Amino acid sequence: MLKVALLGAGRIAQVHARHIHDHPDTTLYSVSDIYAEAASTLAEKYAARVLSADEAIADPQVDVVLVATSTDTHAGFSLQAARAGKAIFCEKPIDLNIERVKSCVAEIKALGVPFMIGFNRRFDPNHAHLNRALRGGEIGELEHLQICSRDPSPLPDDYLLVSGGMFRDMTIHDFDMARFQLGEEPVSVSAIASALVSPTVKAAGDVDTAVITLQTASGKIAVINNSRRSGYGYDQRIEAHGQKGCLYVHNVPTTTLVKVTEEFGAQAQKPLHFFLERYQEAFSEQWKAFVAALKDNRPVPTNADDGLRALLLAEAAIESFKTQKVVSVNLEE
Amino acid sequence: MLKVALLGAGRIAQVHARHIHDHPDTTLYSVSDIYAEAASTLAEKYAARVLSADEAIADPQVDVVLVATSTDTHAGFSLQAARAGKAIFCEKPIDLNIERVKSCVAEIKALGVPFMIGFNRRFDPNHAHLNRALRGGEIGELEHLQICSRDPSPLPDDYLLVSGGMFRDMTIHDFDMARFQLGEEPVSVSAIASALVSPTVKAAGDVDTAVITLQTASGKIAVINNSRRSGYGYDQRIEAHGQKGCLYVHNVPTTTLVKVTEEFGAQAQKPLHFFLERYQEAFSEQWKAFVAALKDNRPVPTNADDGLRALLLAEAAIESFKTQKVVSVNLEE
Amino acid sequence: MLKVALLGAGRIAQVHARHIHDHPDTTLYSVSDIYAEAASTLAEKYAARVLSADEAIADPQVDVVLVATSTDTHAGFSLQAARAGKAIFCEKPIDLNIERVKSCVAEIKALGVPFMIGFNRRFDPNHAHLNRALRGGEIGELEHLQICSRDPSPLPDDYLLVSGGMFRDMTIHDFDMARFQLGEEPVSVSAIASALVSPTVKAAGDVDTAVITLQTASGKIAVINNSRRSGYGYDQRIEAHGQKGCLYVHNVPTTTLVKVTEEFGAQAQKPLHFFLERYQEAFSEQWKAFVAALKDNRPVPTNADDGLRALLLAEAAIESFKTQKVVSVNLEE
Amino acid sequence: MLKVALLGAGRIAQVHARHIHDHPDTTLYSVSDIYAEAASTLAEKYAARVLSADEAIADPQVDVVLVATSTDTHAGFSLQAARAGKAIFCEKPIDLNIERVKSCVAEIKALGVPFMIGFNRRFDPNHAHLNRALRGGEIGELEHLQICSRDPSPLPDDYLLVSGGMFRDMTIHDFDMARFQLGEEPVSVSAIASALVSPTVKAAGDVDTAVITLQTASGKIAVINNSRRSGYGYDQRIEAHGQKGCLYVHNVPTTTLVKVTEEFGAQAQKPLHFFLERYQEAFSEQWKAFVAALKDNRPVPTNADDGLRALLLAEAAIESFKTQKVVSVNLEE
């Protein structure tokens, strides 16, 4: 039974706590949070103890440190846990500063501890099914990939302003998804974007509506479309076109009820509201995959390099947007 | 070029006129109608002449008589045309009186002229595709057939009162469809019905909502559900369940536009409004099939017996509804 | 925290054990099974004790007895638990013998203990959504209800032979669903059926393919279609037609992946395989609803009368099938 | 009755001939083609005469000249007809050389004759429905438009080599569609492309797989994805995202038949095969719209400027692809 120290007691940490508890091979050992009450409420629910982050990381009983705190502390806690020899699961991103990410990734790799970054969407049963179909050659060689990723509505202004901007905060999931599904690294990035949704975003010089195009060395093209507000829930779809056909991942409706009336036509349900609903199973599957890798001494499915490379693509997108040019990237150097 | 005398100038006759004109091997020779103006308007549109029905049937130039007049004249005009040696296309039903239908069918068969009854739905590309798939064994042996047939709204009261009742007027299309898709004659009929939609229908002792179940000698079951009012357009769907799977014919939406909004979910378009829209192509294909049979001296696809047998099923349904029992039928005697 | 004694350790019992464990207000106190090893394996997983059924029912610590044993023991254990003053959750059916069910229901009602029968499908989010929409008047007065309920493949022969026959074993769920969605008791039952799927079933004089039609006093019609083998997974759909439109509950696909190819068209995924997959969430919601009713001292959502009435409809269907007549029922006497 | 001189007797000309014949207000007066036999076959079918193009354009009986010859003759015949004072319907493109198009458009506009360019897709009932919904404000202000336009398989090599390249030949339809749906002119163009499908295309330095991104002055973004080969038929879909929701135009399946089996899941039909099938109704509606404009003395719906502007966008896409930069355009100068 692996003992897990959970750093953070917020929304995502609560999701992780539940999956740690439900998993037959892991137990929630401790919860740490700068808000003592949040930590104790969560700890109590699963009969865990409350520790400071330092205590938890130092505790010899702890096998795994799960970093689900605020973004600016991810790199620090990860390094501290790595130096203490713990296995680490870290929510994305490692950091918003690319140089800090590079040095952090280098040190973690040198220390040789298992480190998994939380790109949960890869573990969504629908996206994972697409990946198996692509790798299984069901449509031959992939040629064109299209990722639609649109939030139901803009997150709060104070979050948006410290988020690192749309490309680093939101598109980063889609950069990882593109790499996952392409099966080949992008070599160029091109970004067209506007601020159409949020006056706050616009005033801050950021964007909230974007189309980002990636191209690989063999000529495969991936295009991501993002918006901070869909106007109809969480839009998370993928299309993959290949030599022998096409694969779609559709949204998941809240229920399968359809109403047909004279006035409104055939009304199906909207997609599941947001990531906690749509990716509920993905979070659970992600934890299982991490635990299975630890138990079998296999590489974790999404490692430190995956965290770094998604951020490198975000940096390139920002440069492309600013210079109005296609920007070359080399993710493998 | 086959010369066609069209009896009738109403809504259905106008549809036929267009398909006669469009077909490269047929020409509209004459139009007859008890309303002189209706006849002349339609005749003028396609450069045809106006004749009385008697003149048209007697005219040696005429190859084909198309009977699209009111129901009570179908049998009379058909017999008159058969005696004149013409090929006949007659709109359903031959008559509402089963004895009259039997004697009419017997005489027409004895005269040996080509006679096709207008069960247009068989020629709908969707229903026809289902039929090819069933006959091709795509789901193995058929076991359960389900026909949904619901009108957008009740026809006018004066029509409903002379229609012969729901089973003879509306279900008759579905009885023919059941026979077409089953590929085996029903041996029993059971009908459960209510008058829920139209006070006129209820006052007249008729029904407007029904479930009719047919069973064949080998045990195949077909169930038809009917309503005089769907509340959302014309509902014309079929399900066929067999040993190896299931086949559906879905409705055809007016366009493929789908709107997704926070308030109303994912709204697709309603089905095509009524039979003129949904079965537009069926009427055209039906005419082509009739002409092809005439040209090749092959049997017509829907003959006088098909007209009789559908009506025999309607009579059995009426008896079942009245006696609350399953009623046996022998369509092949 | 309610302490639950689980009688049975088979497939369904294991599902209940998990939901008892996951629910914040219930704990798995004991497991009982005639196979000692099954009981101990399940008990160990959730740190519960192994007791005999008699011990468990007699144990003063136990608040709730959950009966998930073989059908022939349901009535006996339920009565024993009722006499011991426990709240009871009993898997359907109470018994296959209608007289035994009547006397059992009478005694349980007289004892006044909470008794819930496991008609889990009512708690499926899709079917429950339909029910809210119907009760909320979204399509006006309901007129026609259609339940499609088809198993992926016949259960093992030895199960089929002791199941009490298709109407009592399989259709019983659909009878309950019909009552739930109609919101009005059926007054007549008509059944047409065949043995097309299983030679064992046929040899035993039972059926495996059926259409059952119910009618209420106000004329609403419900039609159920059943098969012991769909050929494509678990088919669990409902259509409800009313004055102002139509509501469908569609199947739930395994994932939302769709593949489009030249050879095979647009392939979507099959429905979820069988009841453990499709009704996974329904079992969890059912348990929550039971616990909520106990906590709030409210009536349970599916009570002993629901168990009895579904079986009365099954008996009427059997009689209708044998006599080839519509059979009247009075569920409220 | 407008008399139409049809220049050309090939595939598209035959489609036009049929719609000219079917329209109550137009008649096919003459057919001209460099292949005498093609001209006479088509003329005979509709009882028209065969004339040389010069004779037809000079004939005082002719009201309308329909140019459906090879691309290199479009501009010449259009100018000749304009100078003869005829109304003109010209298949796209006016020419592949942008300077020639500019001078041709200028002269035609100066002559003041009605000139319609054949951007048939605007008249597809599905795309037209989208346009009405957008202009009607059904999703508020449009923000992101996505056009999927993929051919079933590459056209013959000899066609591809003289087509002017993918952007001028294929994307030109999508540039027009983008302008139509955006309701605002693009001000910049960005193109990423590869040659993945056709060795001939690759050897010729052309591309067959592309993503083109347009942006308007107000920040709206349109993205077009093209391929010369979809692998599953003709993929013609549009998505429009706005402030209050999203609108999709889906493909049109060949029939509504769906097959569900254990082995292959739920198979729906492929999209209609290619433009003659998918845009059959669009060609008919296009002709009706042209005739209606002529009769009512209203501007034609797609004029010479529309032809020019789509080509200007193609030129910009080519430049962007070559320079790897975003290219500014000013379509209104």
TrEMBL record, chains A, B, C, D:
GO molecular function: nucleotide binding; oxidoreductase activity
SUPFAM superfamilies reported for this sequence: Glyceraldehyde-3-phosphate dehydrogenase-like, C-terminal domain, NAD(P)-binding Rossmann-fold domains
Residue stretches making up the GFO/IDH/MocA-like oxidoreductase domain: 128-247
Keywords of the record: Oxidoreductase
Ranges where the Gfo/Idh/MocA-like oxidoreductase N-terminal domain occurs: 2-119
Family (UniProt): Belongs to the Gfo/Idh/MocA family.
Protein name (database record): Inositol 2-dehydrogenase
Species this chain originates from: Pantoea coffeiphila
